[in-house]
Amino acid sequence: MKKNLTLSVLFTSLLIFMSGQTFVSQATFAQNTTQPGQPIPVELQQTAGGWRMLRGGESYYVNGVGGSGSLDLLKSIGGNAIRLWGVDQASDALLDAAAAKGISVALGLWLEHERHGFSYADPQQVADQFNRTLAAVEKYKDHPAVLLWGIGNEMEGDGSNPLIWKHIEELASAIKKVDPLHPTMTVIAEMGGDKIPSIHRLCPSIDIVGINSYGGAPSVPQRYRQLGGTKPYLVTEFGPRGPWELTKNNIDAVLEETSTVKAESYRQSAISIRDDRELCLGFYAFLWGHKQEATATWFGMLLPDGKRTAAVDVLHEIWKGEAPTNPCPRIDALTLQGDNEVEPNATVKLALKANAKAGQKLHAKWVLMAEANAYITGGDFQEAPPSFENNVIESGLEGATLKMPERPGLYRIYAYINDGDSGAAVANLPIRVKGAQLEWGQPVKLPFILYDEPLSAAAFAPTGWMGNTAAIQVD
Questions:
Q1: 271-322 per-position pLDDT tens digit
Q2: Do the Cβ atoms of 315 and 265 come closer than 8 Å?
């Protein structure tokens, strides 16, 4: 799943300098003495106990997250790595800050998707992509924060197009000549079809297999082996079950788990992944930040105000071996009192059960939003749907009363709980307003006429108050 805005970067020139260093094998990289401001060499070694990564000559296991949220928070909970999907997410300031805190960056090299109209059979498109990718490597290869190159993210589709694997191999081979100090990785969406055999057979210059998996993350180690996987791998995205893994309910909506329930999914996946010390080099939990995807809160481990959810506490426990002293509050239940399909302008009531550590004082915020037009986006940018602040009539820690909009369609009510410090919890429920639904943001046919009298110099343009204020109604 592509996570974040469509990532592409344009470069106007290609500067490739051959380093003159000899590549030893597909998984062994040249080492040198690391000086401040110089790249840190990364080496993959296959031992009797399995694969391991060395960074600057020292053993390095990836305790990472996907995204560029607070580096200070990540460091404080024991994290040591972030993953970016494309170089347009990178900046000198971000890379410098990561290096200063001892945090590595898996720097993505975005490859276009066929579903967006890119053709891997078009020599010009492929050549342009090849050139800008190599230019990105040349630009960032010497930065001490760089851990590896992530060549593409879920660009393989169903994995059946050999031209995509050919392009990935050509890129990986060329990257090794430009930068022999950092390994290459390509990232796939789950492991269906012939994806794993294809990478092993057609992409010998790929050192690490990156796997995005959500509901199936706990079984990745077993399934990878069953599919013939022998290269080292990283779980490059995991988190709660995605909306594509759940069924819709009676009002054609997908129910999202609370942040409290999601945290246990992160725990189960992280423990299973870490148990594989033979082939697995670590993981990147998704998402270190927040975004609109399916809903406003589905994948984000952090809220827009920076507060953390329980998934962050789980990573803290796993990485540091101890629970945080100020755990996030819990949401044990959010229930709708009545039917989940109502008339326009209906009043609805919800009940909430939230708990916190003794001494913590909780605060509640309730938000009504229209439902997004799609649950499954492939990670593409999704515009946030409208919210209705004035429709919250009463709200508190035990529940809320809201007036539903007049416009038919799906809506979602969010309950945000915070402890007044840095911890939070969130839950939501969908509700349908009866009637024919019109998608938010649906374009109108052009030309769209507001005033259909012939235009002339004397045309009347309504600009202000006409006197009869009693005739005005505002919803």
A1: 999 999 999 999 999 999 999 999 999 999 999 999 999 999 999 999 999 9
A2: no
Burial (CB < 10 A; 0-12, 13-18, 19+), residue 33, is: exposed
d(CA 72, CA 79): 10
- How many C-beta atoms lie closer than 10 Å to residue 39's C-beta? 19
Q: Using one digit for the tens of pLDDT, what is the confidence trace for 79-90? A: 999 999 999 988
For residues 159 and 147, give the distance between their C-alpha atoms in angstroms, rounded to a whole number: 26
HEC-encoded secondary structure of the chain: CCCCCCCCCCCCCCCCCCCCCCCCECCECCCCCCCCCCCCCEEEEEECCEEEEEECCEECCEEEEECCCCHHHHHHCCCCEEEECCHHHCCHHHHHHHHHCCCEEEEEECCCCHHHCCCCCCHHHHHHHHHHHHHHHHHHCCCCCEEEEEEEECCCCCCCCHHHHHHHHHHHHHHHHHCCCCCEEEEEECCCCCHHHHHHHHCCCCCEEEEECCCCHHHHHHHHHHCCCCCCEEEEECCCCCHHHCCCCCCCCCCCCCHHHHHHHHHHHHHHHHCCCCCEEEEEEECCCCCCECECCCCCCECCCCCECHHHHHHHHHHHCCCCCCCCCEEEEEEECCCCEECCCCEEEEEEEEECCCCCCCEEEEEEEECCCCCCCCCCCCCCCCECHHHEEEECCCEEEEECCCCCEEEEEEEEEECCCCEEEEEEEEEEECCCCCCCCCCCCCCCCCCCCCCCCCCCCCCCCCCCHHHCCCC
- Model-level pTM? 0.85
Give the torsion sign (CA, 112, 114, 119, 121): positive
Residue 115 half-sphere exposure toward CB, CA atoms < 13 A: 13
Whether omega for the bond prior to residue 447 falls within 30 degrees of 0, making it cis, is yes
Encode 194-218: b = buried (16+ Cβ within 10 Å), e = exposed. bbbebbbeebebbbbbbbbbbbbbb
- Do residues 427 and 335 touch, judged by C-beta distance below 8 A? no
CB neighbours of 192 closer than 8 A, spacing ≥ 6? 158, 159
